[in-house]
Write a structure and sequence with these properties.
heterodimer, A: mainly beta, 7-stranded mixed β-sheet, 4-stranded antiparallel β-sheet, 0% helix, globular, B: mainly beta, 6-stranded mixed β-sheet, 5-stranded antiparallel β-sheet, 52% strand
C-alpha cells in the first residue's frame, strides 16, 4: 500500500480563520480523495482531486468552503475556509492503490478543532 | 440508493469468540466492498475486500461473506482478540466510476479478555 502523510496532524483554530491541510504520497497516483469524519461518525467524501483538472465536489460541499489543489501526482492540499465550530472533524486524504486498482488507502488524518 | 447500512452499532465479544458485523446496500451497481479497521486517532486501514463474483473471501482470521441476491455482506472475525478492539467500517463503490467509497455507519467492537 502507499505511504501517506498529512500535515498538520491536529490543530486548534479560531472561528473565521482558514486552515490548509497537506497530503503527501510516496508514489505517483492519479486519484486522490478528501474525506471528512465528524466526531464519532462515519466518513463522507468531500471531493475527488485529479492532477491537472478541477476537483470534483460531492453534494453539500463547495469549492469556496473547501478549495483543493493538486499540483502534481504525489501531493494535494485541502483548505477549510472561514471555519466554524461545525467544521471540527477529522479530515482524511486517501489514494488509490499502487496498481491503479480500486482499493483506497487512507492517511493518518488531521484532527481539527474550531473554537 | 447510495446508502450502506451497517449493524450493529456496537459489539462486545469475549476473547476467542466470533465477531460478526453486517452491511446491506441498495445500489446494485456497487461492485467493490471493502472493510476498514480504525483505531482511535488513526486513519482507517484497509482490512479485506470482496467483489461480487465470489461469495466468500478469507484472509487469516478475517472473512467476508457476500450474498448478492440479498444485497448483504458481512465481516466475520474468528478467534477475536483484545487487539481487534476498534471501529470497523464497511464500504461500497462502483469501480470504473469515480472511485467514491460509500461508508456504513461503523461498528465499535470491544473484545473482552
Amino acid at each position: 500500500s502507499a505511504v501517506i502523510s498529512q500535515k498538520p496532524s491536529r490543530d486548534i483554530c479560531q472561528r473565521g480563520t482558514s486552515l490548509t491541510i497537506q497530503c503527501q504520497v510516496d508514489s505517483q497516483v492519479t486519484m486522490m480523495f478528501w474525506y471528512r469524519q465528524q466526531p464519532g461518525q462515519s466518513l463522507t467524501l468531500i471531493a475527488t482531486a485529479n492532477q491537472g483538472s478541477e476537483a470534483t465536489y460531492e453534494s453539500g460541499f463547495v469549492i469556496d468552503k473547501f478549495p483543493i489543489s493538486r499540483p502534481n501526482l504525489t501531493f494535494s492540499t485541502l483548505t477549510v475556509s472561514n471555519m466554524s465550530p461545525e467544521d471540527s472533524s477529522i479530515y482524511l486524504c486517501s489514494v488509490e492503490g499502487r496498481t491503479g486498482g480500486y482499493e483506497q488507502y487512507f492517511g493518518p488524518g488531521t484532527r481539527l478543532t474550531v473554537t | 440508493q447510495q446508502q450502506v447500512k451497517q449493524s450493529p452499532q456496537s459489539l462486545i465479544v469475549q476473547k476467542g469468540g466470533i465477531s460478526i458485523i453486517n452491511c446491506a446496500y441498495e445500489n446494485t451497481a456497487f461492485d467493490y466492498f471493502p472493510w476498514y479497521q480504525q483505531f482511535p486517532g488513526k486513519g482507517p486501514a484497509l482490512l479485506i475486500a470482496i467483489r461480487p463474483d465470489v461469495s466468500e473471501k478469507k484472509e487469516g482470521r478475517f472473512t467476508i461473506s457476500f450474498n448478492k441476491s440479498a444485497k448483504q455482506f458481512s465481516l466475520h472475525i474468528m478467534d477475536s482478540q483484545p487487539g481487534d478492539s476498534a471501529t470497523y467500517f464497511c464500504a461500497a463503490s462502483i469501480t470504473g466510476n469515480t472511485g467514491k467509497l460509500i461508508f456504513g455507519q461503523g461498528t465499535t467492537l470491544q473484545v473482552k479478555p
